[in-house]
Amino acid sequence: xxxxxxxxxxxxxxxxxxxxxxxxxxxxxxxxxxxxxxxxxxxxxxxxxxxxxxxxxxxxxxxxxxxxxxxxxxxxxxxxxxxxxxxxxxxxxxxxxxxxxxxxxxxxxxxxxxxxxxxxxxxxxxxxxxxxxxxxxxxxxxxxxxxxxxxxxxxxxxxxxxxxxxxxxxxxxxxxxxxxxxxxxxxxxxxxxxxxxxxxxxxxxxxxxxxxxxxxxxxxxxxxxxxxxxxxxxxxxxxxxxxxxxxxxxxxxxxxxxxxxxxxxxxxxxxxxxxxxxxxxxxxxxxxxxxxxxxxxxxxxxxxxxxxxxxxxxxxxxxxxxxxxxxxxxxxxxxxxxxxxxxxxxxxxxxxx
Length: 353
Hints:
By secondary structure, the chain is of the alpha/beta class.
């Protein structure tokens, strides 16, 4: 290896905020006068672009950190469903993959003080080719920062399992997206418990609506939806609900929701009406290419709630919406700016970088 300090940012689950945290840490290290580099050994956040499958995270890293590395260096393995199928059939040479990751890393790290590696998926992703984040940390001699969520004490099970797997390579844990209601439990019980187990906790970043959700407008863009109303589309959506029950049952279900989009068939006027009556529902997503009745559109206009229409079936719409909403706000430089501020305010950055 090199004299470069290497930090691998991994997570207990997907959509934990790894990208924003990895790039914010790199920026904070750069602010301290260090030359930094970035690598995501396994590309998992895939979107086809001009016939090539690309992960958006390295592209954002190149932009935000001002790097000139090539995509194939920053992301040597495209961890796609096709790649995984080939790997389990034995068509991938595991030793050659490890060599490729090591060689690209060595080239990227050659003139850098600090390399930041982003894990793919969660910490177990990559096992079929012996490239879990633990394997990558061993291969590239990296110390590991684990990003975790916290809603209840039961969430510490995942942290302990990951900590045991990483062993001495684990530098510590950063909790992210912690809600106000969970903060006291984490601060008073969770963190002291982990520290009693010999696990360092660098800090806890509070949940930020602007980072946790997507706007209705962003959701519409990502789904390729037609807007059927001219209501404002700047409300935030953090979850989605499926309207597959009767109107009365739907209304009870929707009334408990907060910052939600309701996905239902375009022909389900009873469910649409119930959704529009619930204050926590921010928009309707109607599937199947059906247009709702004039009465429903009138009610939506009165309530100031956007109605989105997609031509896909409900199951496809659910899958796509889940990917958009759980992925959080469309990742861009502003997200990294805000995360940089949050880490500086809530986390022991000096210990991290």
